[in-house]
Amino acid sequence: MVIRGLTDCGFFKEAIDYCHIMQIEDVRTDNLTFAFVIKSCGVIEYAEKVFEEIPVRDLVSWNSMIIGYVSVGLGRRSLLCFREVQEFGIKLDRNLQWDFVVSSNAITLINLLPFCGELGVVLMGKSIHGYAITKGFFPNLVSETALIDIYGDCGKLKLAEHVFHQITGASFVSSNTMIAVYVQNGWNGEALELFHGLWKENMEPDSIPIASIIPAFAESALLMEGKQIHAYITKLELGSNNFISNSLIYMYAKFGVFHTSRDLFDHMLHKDVVSWSTIIMENAIHGFGKISTKLFSKMMEKGMEPKASTFVSLLSSCSNAGMIDEGWQYFNSTKWDYGIDPRI
C-alpha cells in the first residue's frame, strides 16, 4: 500500500528506495511488487539495484526487467537479460497459471524481437525463434508477425517467408508486414503478387498495405497500376494520410509526372519533413536545382528539421545546376548547423 501510494503521487525514486529498505530489513519484496514499481516508475538504475537484491527471481520480475530495458531503449541489455533466462532457467512459482506463463513469455519475446532487427543480430533473433518453438508459444500471430519484421530488417527474406507461410490462416496484419518487408528489401514483384492476392481473397487493403505497396509500383515502372491505386485511395478518402500522400508524391516523381506530384504536395494539409524532402529530391533528380533550393528555404521557414537525405538532394541539385557556391554553403551547413556528417 505504501509503495502504491508513493508511485501514485509521482514519488518514483522513493518507491524504489522503499523496496530497497524492505530488503535491507529482511522484508522480502515479492516479484509482483517489483513489477508494479518498474511499470510505474521506469527508472532503470534503481530498478537494477532492486532486481539484483531479489532473493528468488521469477518470470514476472525477469519480464519486468526486460521490458524496463526495452522501454528506455536499451536493446542490448534486454537481449542479454533474456539470454540469462535461457542459460540459467527460471523456477516458476507453482501458483502461476500456465496460460499466464505462456502469455508473459510471449510478451517478453514480442518486446525483444524489434531490437534484434534494429541491432541486426539475426542469430539472437533465430535463438528467440527457436526458444519460442520449443516452449510451444506458436501459433501466436503477434509473435510470428514480429519475427517476419525482424528477419526483414536483417535482410533474411527466405526466413521471413518461411514464418509467413507457417502462419495458419495468414491475417491482414501478417500480410501487410510481409508486403512491407518485400518492398523494404527491393522484392517488388513478390510484394505486388501478395498485394494482388489480397484482392483475390476479397480482403480490401486499407491504408497500411497501400502505403507500403506504392513504392513497388514506382520501382517497377507500373504507372497505370499506380494510377489505379491512386483512384482507389481517392475513393476511400485516404488522401489525408501523410504516409500515403508521401508515397504517391514519390511514385509520380519517379515516373516524371511533375504536375501530379507537385499538385499532391501543394494540397497536403500537414506537410512533414518527408513530404518536403521528397519534393526536393524530385526536382534534384530532374535537374531543377533552383526550385529545389527555393523549396528548401520554404521548408526552413516552416521550422522543419532537414534529414541527411534532404541535403543529399540539395547537393545533387547544386551540382547538376552548376551552383558551386550554394553547394559549398549547404555542405558546410550540413555539419556545422545540423550535426550531420556530410560523408555519410
What topology does this entry show?
Layout: H1 2-8, H2 12-24, H3 31-41, H4 44-52, H5 59-71, H6 75-88, H7 98-119, H8 122-134, H9 141-153, H10 157-166, H11 172-184, H12 188-200, H13 207-219, H14 223-235, H15 242-255, H16 258-266, H17 273-285, H18 289-301, H19 308-321, H20 324-336
Q: How much helix, percentage-wise, in residues? A: over 70%
Distance, first to last CA: 53 Å
- Overall geometry comes to globular
Report on the biggest sheet.
none
In round numbers, the mean pLDDT is 73
**Structural class by secondary-structure content:** mainly alpha
Order of helices and strands: HHHHHHHHHHHHHHHHHHHH
Number of strands: 0
Q: Runs with pLDDT <50, length 5+? A: 91-104
Q: Note the quaternary state here.
A: single chain
Cα-atom radius of gyration: 25 Å
Number of DSSP helices?
Answer: 20
The proportion of strand residues reads under 5%
Pfam family, one: PPR
GO molecular function: RNA binding
Protein name: Pentatricopeptide repeat
InterPro entries: PPR_At4g14850-like_plant, PPR_rpt, TPR-like_helical_dom_sf
Question: What does this entry look like structurally?
Answer:
74% of the residues lie in helices and 0% in strands. The protein has a domain at 271-344. It is mainly alpha-helical. The chain contains 20 helices and no strands.
